[in-house]
Amino acid sequence: MTQQHSRKQPLSVAFIALLAVTLHQSFAATDAPPTAAAPQTTSPPPAPPALPERGNYTVTNGNGTACLMALMGLQLNVSFSSAAFNKTVLDVVNLQPNMTKSSGSCDSDSATLLLKADEERTNLTLIFSLNATSSKYHLSGVTLSAAWPHMSEPFSASNSSLDYLRGTLGRSYMCREEQTLAVTVNFSLNTFQLQVQPFGLTGYQFGAAEECQLDEDDMLIPIIVGAALAGLVLVVLVAYLIGRKRSHAGYQTI
């Protein structure tokens, strides 16, 4: 009896130790903090392109003389349906002068500049009209056709009832500041460092420039600030002289 009892005792001790280890592992698993889910990262929006380079575009008439000249940087803002993203996207594209071919035609009251870029995947047409009675011209029509990657179908937009870039016959229109010319709901055109003259050119030289309102405002702001500073200096100087005069009068009274 004594020998049997001594053989069962080690077995009971081993069972209790095994049970303790199992309970400890289960409690440890229960108390362990839940694993944090990996944070979801979203790709940042694409950065806007840099300012476009300034292109030099000239249209000549039948006798080889210039009838339209334009210096400008152009940027296209186009909303289109994308097959790759399955949604409507806005793409901002700079027209690169070294990859753009220019052509066009001129009549007595109309001048057209045609720009073909990216191996003719981008075709931009600018039409200027002249009012012979008032001797004023303006940008009256813009047309864009494009076949860019990710487009569900070729893009086309046109408007022939515009009234931008107004100038006088024989003079050029200039605007150094960025301008946004709304063409359609899905297309607008940004211009930079613009100087254009579609009528009344003498040789290959621009006429006297008529500056846009944006440029005039930029010139007016420094003048206003300078005048305000000059007025402030004058007020301080007058106050100083008055104070100095009063102090001298006080000394004489004493």
Automatic annotation (TrEMBL):
Identify the keywords attached in UniProt to this record, alphabetized.
Cell membrane, Disulfide bond, Endosome, Glycoprotein, Lysosome, Membrane, Signal, Transmembrane, Transmembrane helix
Which protein, by its recorded name, is this? Lysosome-associated membrane glycoprotein 1
Family, similarity comment: Belongs to the LAMP family.
The keyword Protease is annotated on this UniProt entry: no
Q: Name one GO cellular component term.
A: late endosome membrane
Write down the PROSITE patterns for this protein, in alphabetical order.
LAMP_2, LAMP_3
Where does the protein end up?
A: Cell membrane; Cytolytic granule membrane; Late endosome membrane; Lysosome membrane
Q: Which residues cross the membrane?
A: 219-242
Segments of skewed composition (Low complexity): 32-41
